[in-house]
Amino acid sequence: MNLPGFLDVSTVSIIVAVIALVYAVGLIINVLMQDTGSQKMRDIAKSIQEGASAYLNRQSFTILVFAVLIFLLLAYVIPKGAHNNGLLLAVGFFVGALFSALAGYIGMSVSVRANVRTAQASSHSLKKGLMVAFRGGAVTGLSVVGLALLGVAGFYAIFTKLLGVPAGETPNLLIGFGFGASLVSLFARVGGGIFTKAADVGADLVGKIEKGIPEDDPRNPAVIADNVGDNVGDCAGMGADLFETYAVTLIAAMILAASALTDTLGTSGIEYPLALGSIAVLASIAGTWFVRLGKNKKNIMMALYRGMIVTGVLSAIGFYFVTDSMIGDINIFYAAVVGLVVTLFINVITEYYTSTAYKPVRKIAKSSETGAGTNIISGLAVGLESTFLPVILIVTAIIVAYFFGEASVAQSGIYGIAIAAVAMLSTTGLVIATDSYGPITDNAGGIAEMANLPEKVRKNTDALDAVGNTTKAVTKGYAIGSAALAALVLFQAYTEELTKATDKEFIFSLSDYRVIVGLFIGGLLPFIFASSLMESVGKAAHKIVVEVRRQFKDIKGIMTGKAKPEYGKCVDIVTKAALKEMIFPGILAVTTPILVGVFLGPIVLGGLLVGVIIVGFLMAISMSTGGGAWDNAKKYIEDGNYGGKGSDAHKAAVVGDTVGDPYKDTAGPALNALIKVINTISLIIAPLIAGLVIWS
Amino acid sequence: MNLPGFLDVSTVSIIVAVIALVYAVGLIINVLMQDTGSQKMRDIAKSIQEGASAYLNRQSFTILVFAVLIFLLLAYVIPKGAHNNGLLLAVGFFVGALFSALAGYIGMSVSVRANVRTAQASSHSLKKGLMVAFRGGAVTGLSVVGLALLGVAGFYAIFTKLLGVPAGETPNLLIGFGFGASLVSLFARVGGGIFTKAADVGADLVGKIEKGIPEDDPRNPAVIADNVGDNVGDCAGMGADLFETYAVTLIAAMILAASALTDTLGTSGIEYPLALGSIAVLASIAGTWFVRLGKNKKNIMMALYRGMIVTGVLSAIGFYFVTDSMIGDINIFYAAVVGLVVTLFINVITEYYTSTAYKPVRKIAKSSETGAGTNIISGLAVGLESTFLPVILIVTAIIVAYFFGEASVAQSGIYGIAIAAVAMLSTTGLVIATDSYGPITDNAGGIAEMANLPEKVRKNTDALDAVGNTTKAVTKGYAIGSAALAALVLFQAYTEELTKATDKEFIFSLSDYRVIVGLFIGGLLPFIFASSLMESVGKAAHKIVVEVRRQFKDIKGIMTGKAKPEYGKCVDIVTKAALKEMIFPGILAVTTPILVGVFLGPIVLGGLLVGVIIVGFLMAISMSTGGGAWDNAKKYIEDGNYGGKGSDAHKAAVVGDTVGDPYKDTAGPALNALIKVINTISLIIAPLIAGLVIWS
């Protein structure tokens, strides 16, 4: 790149990461300067802030207990030879967990402050509302990528420059950072997902169905808990998830380059992913400037698309030059473009399956006419079907990226896949911004409702929120699609790690019954994990139902508006339930690869990794998209179709939406975290179990 | 075995098969001699008979079109060298399809005659009712295993003795017979599954939910269609399915022995599976004698268990001696015992998940208190969770059977798995008998209701039917479990076939991106297939709803019982809908492996095979068991829990049951057929595509 000597790739990446963070601080200041509306609005916002902070603090404490335990294990159990140094791995792990949690905190803290300001801004115009909400979302986006890039590039720089670790051995140490991020993302997704949907479902079951009061009605005792849930689940949970996916994908590509491609690419192959990341971060910042309502003031989706397209195009241009200077092979550039194209198509595909404008959602809406039973059958069918195009897309991406990787100087198809995954995730900053603005507008609508703002305000926030539903679904597809690609790279790294530890080649053949056993167990995990999460939401929602019913009975005057419900009790109940319920899935995810690795050996564990990727991908897409389609089928009916609000079809659609909630916001997205945490753990224990040949 | 010279294994097997068929004829005569009750009962039974025959005839015709096409393709496109002779393959295919259809016809014809006789017998006593129904079921069971054993042993004898094909090359020709059976089972499962659930759901939606009339009420215009559905789906469809699983498992084991084990086992290894089958058929006949109500007249399940246990124990004893004389290695006997033990455990596990006596069903029932939404969430969670124990069971069986196979003279772990699968399926005759008695009692209950028989009769048939729900779920678990084992053997045969055709070793490594692509596509197939079937049931049920509503409106006096509904119209509508809807999934299943094999090559196809086995197994178990649990949760509430019949919890449970219907009786069981048809087709085209190396 003809950089001055002191400006190597990792230093530039660190500078870019700091720019992103500084820019985020600027956005925070901008958001905080906005008008917060009336005292009543501030009071409501404060309740949400307090609930969200209280939950996140307690969740962080729970994670901390796990993290300290794992820190000690890493530092003292990993023998010297493996990964060179257990202590470095442990430190990386801790910082990874810390940064991930920090990204979540920043995002959530801004989110719970942008909500009330968005509500106030929406009382002026849709345009102003979008502006405030999107800026709030952009803070999360830029914090996530800024911290992730800072962490990966920073550790890389520290290891190579301060500690003098050879560049080729550094990426293996970075996996500690990735694992820390994985662990936090797992718990954040699981805990946040259970919180948000238990509160949502519980509030709806009594409020909407039994009492017939609208969503976000201040008379509903669970209404604050519901709004808190949007922040801890959709904002903090999603942020931690993508932080991890972003970081681990970078690291996986670097490990691959370090372990298998130093002959062909040298150090450039290791640092190239950082360069791609840096460019896309700058492009994402530029992209945020283009998110503005155009002449057609209604077309919010187009405003967001404009930002994405600008980011994509700028990234592609930057990728071209950086590839030319670092690798000097157009094939690698093409592999990167594959990643950008996948992002584009995932948008289109997800919109098709979840937008009210197309057949799938309308099919579900129509089937609601004959009752809840047919609505559910139809929604399940759409969810199952919605895996089709994403699989074709990912499979095509694998084939094409592999081809370019193989044809390049790297002579490595899997490096092509790794670069496609890195490129795909490089625009994460902007993707999160468009997603994370969703919970902000959702909250803004809630505040508008609770503070009795004029109809018009709610209409504006509703318009913003409707788009948020689609962007949320898109982001989930994006996260899981990139996770699948990244996980394949991690699997490759796992096999390299085994070989390095034993000097033997490991072959994972489908004719080997141990691989089949592994595939079965790996395929089973998403089933058990998703089942446990669905169950948890059901249990926690049940507790909310009981409490809300109690308050309506015991506190006279809630329904007439004369008495205030005890919001805090509901927040407290979901908090406790979510923290309790996240333990089992967390332990399941962390211990299964270790137990399988130790007792059934490295070959079975390899099969397990691929099994969890394939089945996890299919189920995550099916649940996320299916849930989104159910939600929007309800909205389509509420728009006046098939009898509109209050009709029998609407009642059936509300049931579908209730089922879709844990599908799309708890189980589906958490599978992504499951896939990644299992892969990173396996990579860490690979050198320890490589020698265990339990059966021949 | 020290048999006289002319009595070799295949001859003995043919004799045993004929004994089974003759015994079935005896049972038919016995059933037909029973009292058919009043004229009204006979009339109702006649409507069901006519509807069932009409449907099965038209379904057979549709399949015939496909079959002729495939016959010609096999006979003229398969080049001489591959599989030796395309014409022999084609003839086998045709006979396989014919026998499978025949087994279905026999079973259904007896079933629609045993129903009315069971109703009449139940008016005397529970004991008599059980006797007639079980004998009716045993006809299907013995016809299925008799025809399957006759087909496999018969072709083997013809090839080796009349045509002089060397024993080692014969099994490869048998795959034609297996493929014919697969094709019929696919269409029978799909068409029958759509028919039965469209009629059931459609009848319930208007009858139970809109009009508030009970199940099987003669005023419901779809009531005959519903009863026809029990026969064409649960009886004929299930019979064809297990015919295929039984035959293909035998063939897969024989192919394996022929292609890889002639050095160690000689011809004995090829013929040994036939010997196991013969013994278990005799044991099954003996087992039927022990199905009798004991002192505790209520315990119907125990009566059925007694038959199964006797069959299992007799089979094990027989296996011991036949293994000793043919193989002379106790390890192979142990492998066979693994199969019998798996059958036992599948019973226990399935009962746990689907019986009203245990936690899973009660959890769903409890969650119905808070509405349909939580009922569905809970049911989905139970379905997902119910994969856990079956996976552990199958994985353990794989490991243990592999171990014994490896330790045996065969020195082949996969042969151990093959023998476990054969042993597991050898008792199919009795398993079908206990399953197929379900639709008979279901129908008997319907006839009792429609003919206004005394309360007591209905109570007896209900008692019989409740057990039928569990045995149906058990049979599905049994079929899919054995299919998974058999499919693994087929995959092995596929790789041997490729090697034989090219003289190169084919390795399906998880590090090969083509395998990953195949796994993704294979994993996708069950999702698309199940989605399409759920959708089809929804569509067809919708048509029934419209027609039933029309009849209630247009034909005055239906509700008062003064006018008779036009039952035939409903039967006709479901018939047309089922036949139309079975085309897409049928073509999907048949063409996908061919297209993938030809355009993406044999390695991708190998990955696809394993992908469809893993994901198909998980989804089939989840859907079959989840659906059964939903059904019984409703029954548990109807028994007076959580408010009993007519309560809000009951209404929620009815929604869950409606969703569970296509889950357990259409999509779930059809996945089994999907797995097998894809595996048999791939085995047939293996020699043709082995040379196609599309990508390196």
Task: Write structural notes for this entry.
The structure is a homodimer of 696-residue chains. The first copy, chain A, has 696 residues and is mostly helical. In chain A, 83% of the residues lie in helices and 0% in strands. Chain A has helices at 9-32, 39-77, 86-122, 126-162, 170-211, 223-260, 262-288, 300-326, 330-354, 359-367, 372-385, 388-407, 413-426, 428-450, 455-502, 513-554, 567-581, 583-638, 648-689. In chain A, helix 3 crosses helix 14 (428-450), helix 8 (300-326) runs antiparallel to helix 9 (330-354) and helix 16 (513-554) packs antiparallel against helix 17. Chain A is globular and about 75 Å long. The model of chain A has no long low-confidence stretch (mean pLDDT 90). At the A-B interface, helix 5, helix 11, helix 12, helix 13 and helix 15 of A face helix 5, helix 12, helix 13, helix 14 and helix 16 of B.
Brief overview:
The structure is a homodimer of 696-residue chains. Chain A is 83% helix and 0% strand.
Features:
19 helices, 83% helix, 696 residues, globular
Write the layout of secondary structure elements.
The structure is a homodimer of 696-residue chains.
Chain A: H1 9-32, H2 39-77, H3 86-122, H4 126-162, H5 170-211, H6 223-260, H7 262-288, H8 300-326, H9 330-354, H10 359-367, H11 372-385, H12 388-407, H13 413-426, H14 428-450, H15 455-502, H16 513-554, H17 567-581, H18 583-638, H19 648-689
